[in-house]
Amino acid sequence: MSILPSDSHYDLIVIGGGSIGLSTAYHATKRGMKTLVLERYGFFNDDGSSAGASRQFRLQYAQRYMAELCLAAQSWWADLQSHTQSTLIGLSGSVWFGDPDVSSQEGGIAESERVMSALSIPYTKLDAEQIEQTYNFQNLPTHDRGFFQANGGIINLKVAEQAAYSAAAASGLAEFRAYEPVTGLSSDSAGISVSTASGTLTADRLAITSGAYTNQVVAHLGLQVPYFIWAMSSAYFRKTDPGTQCPTWFYFGKEKDYYGFPEVPWSYPGYIRCAPDFADKVISDPADRPAGPDPHNLALTSEFVARNMTGLDPTPQFPATCLIALSSDSTKELLLDYVPSSIPNNKRIVVYTAGWAAKLIPILGDMICEMLTSDVTDFTYNNFSVPQSNFSIGWRESSDKPDLSAVPVRRVRK
Ligand code: BEZ
Asked: Which residues of 227-236 are buried (b: 16+ CB within 10 A; e: fewer)?
């Protein structure tokens, strides 16, 4: 697409080489774009939102458009799968259970059942006794209930990133630069420029996919995305009973939520990963992240494992952390938008951040490229159309003080 190719001019620069940035690069190279990916750390790192080995794939959502996107994502996962011998999603199924009166940003049992029924997504309702008989859970309040959805699974996150990276690299159109943070950014009538320690690069288009680091990048344009960052912990628990196995699961507790995964050969075989779905600390700048996993939150997870799970040693092992940007506007699951029209070339600069987006890795790369190459108001996949406004960013100025007192409640009991 470049008229005057030069070493430092690209059709697209992607800032942020995590899972969504790599997927964007893959989809851009499929469109014939000479693409540069800039990553502040090493590729496949554990320093931000793409930390850890596993993520949940699921179809159930309280928002119909999110369930529609997950349905559409399945064929995009199949496409990415064709670039690797390793399995990207282990289809263990997904069980959601717990207090039916809890509704959270992640969904909520009744709301998600309504959306699945409306979209003819099959699921099986389960009461507390059935959940205990079928999976390795125990001591559930009798009032608890839930469902099993067979298309859910466990995403091999690092292999998904590697598949996108190698597919983009194999095109011969992609360049990847690690340990090259952005030091400046401008967009004017002369075009889009990105500075790093090694010089100034120019591009026809720019994708900013920097996760929790996005506000450090868009500050160069005088902008701020209203999000806050959860620093989170997780751990693995040793199987004491070899027969212990479960689908991916999410538990909506009376007080707190937890989630977990099946045992997989590619991440601490013999162990099962379980995690608290609450923050160790809520921050606005990744520099303020805690030094390590939160012992109190790991202790609460251990108590949950001891009280409510069977066949596991409740001692947390291999603890890890990740950072997740979450939209300050609780009506928005994911934030994906053009920069404001006050910025020249705004329809050629797309920002994605915030939300639990791993399940959408391959389709989000395509959505970002669609926005970069045409003026998108709706994303049309399968037989539905998802308005872009579902993801719009309420832009703020970089000089505005981030307001953590306005962090929305992400979980309510009806
Ligand atoms: C999700 O699937 O969106 C999710 C899973 C576990 C924790 C938080 C979110």
From this structure: bbbbbbbbbb
159, 184 Cβ separation under 8 angstroms: no
Identify any residues that bridge with 323 across adjacent strands, giving them in sequence order.
Answer: 231
Q: Which residues line ligand 1 (CB under 6 A)?
A: 56, 58, 106, 250, 259, 277, 356
Which residue has its alpha carbon closest to ligand 1 atom 7?
Answer: 277
Please report, for residues 46, 154, 248, 353, the alpha-carbon distance to residue 321 in angstroms, rounded to integers and kept in the order given.
8, 18, 19, 18
- Whether residue 257 contacts residue 98, with contact meaning beta carbons closer than 8 Å, is answered with yes
Nearest-CA neighbor of 178 among 201, 197, 164? 197
Alpha-carbon distance 28 to 60, whole Å? 29
Question: pLDDT tens for residues 354-389?
Answer: 999 999 999 999 999 999 999 999 999 988 999 999
Among left, alpha and beta (phi > 0; psi -120 to 50; other), residue 93 is left
Q: For the chain, what percent of residues have pLDDT higher than 70? A: 96
Q: Is the pTM of this model over 0.90?
A: yes
For ligand 1, pick from 56, 96, 252 the residue to mutate: most ligand atoms within 8 Å of CB.
Answer: 56
Per-residue tokens: 290: 């805690």
